[in-house]
Amino acid sequence: xxxxxxxxxxxxxxxxxxxxxxxxxxxxxxxxxxxxxxxxxxxxxxxxxxxxxxxxxxxxxxxxxxxxxxxxxxxxxxxxxxxxxxxxxxxxxxxxxxxxxxxxxxxxxxxxxxxxxxxxxxxxxxxxxxxxxxxxxxxxxxxxxxxxxxxxxxxxxxxxxxxxxxxxxxxxxxxxxxxxxxxxxxxxxxxxxxxxxxxxxxxxxxxxxxxxxxxxxxxxxxxxxxxxxxxxxxxxxxxxxxxxxxxxxxxxxxxxxxxxxxxxxxxxxxxxxxxxxxxxxxxxxxxxxxxxxxxxxxxxxxxxxxxxxxxxxxxxxxxxxxx
Length: 323
Hints:
Layout: H1 2-58, E1 63-66, H2 77-85, E2 93-110, E3 115-126, H3 128-133, H4 144-148, H5 156-165, E4 196-200, H6 201-204, E5 205-209, E6 216-220, E7 227-233, E8 242-253, H7 258-261, E9 264-268, H8 269-276, E10 284-289, H9 295-305, E11 313-316, H10 317-320
Parallel strand pairs: 3-9, 4-8
Antiparallel strand pairs: 1-10, 1-11, 2-3, 2-7, 2-10, 4-9, 5-6, 7-8
């Protein structure tokens, strides 16, 4: 009886150990899956957060000086930048780019009946080279050659398309002179060169579904070389007086941020200044830093240079995108 009892206890202990090992294995696997899920989710969210921050930062420089007025800063852009270069903040600054940013209306025609479409836009007058030096402009352009050398010039295809829809106007032949000589030949006909512009990808394209694959695709609304009109407000005494001009689409900019792609258009800085009669004044000054950790020091120095909060507002890109 004692031997039987001993054998039974051994069997029970072995069975218990067997089940315990199984339960321990299940617990270990459960903990591993739980930890792996946390790691994956945190990694995905961290990557998404980094990408989102990079996108928001992409179209904004490290530090921005802006004017609340559409008329721009009281002093000209060159004078502002010269003050900054002569200040202690200059040792932390890598590049600067002045811009004019105003609201406007974009007008273009589509379809066989040339239906007129009007949409509100955010018009940015900028120099593409200096704007690219403060980061986040050329890399988002859709035409590959323009990424390294951003400009508002039309490429060959854009030139052909623009010339097709805007043929040269033939000049009238001069009347015959009184001396009996043949009439003078007219000068060669030339099409007026357009001012190029770059529009957000959400303006020049629309999202639809492929009827065959059922996958979303982007179809163009405007192509390089198409003519559009921009209407905005002048910067004179009568600020509500509208001004307008035609532009030829040179390229699209695709940041994958709907707020920018569906609203922003970029035009040459000097031409927008002339169009709005604002001289060499600007509404924004984009500043790129050598080391972003020095941003509080730079902001503090800039506020000393431009202490008037009614005309100058200084902040980092994070403060502008605080929401």
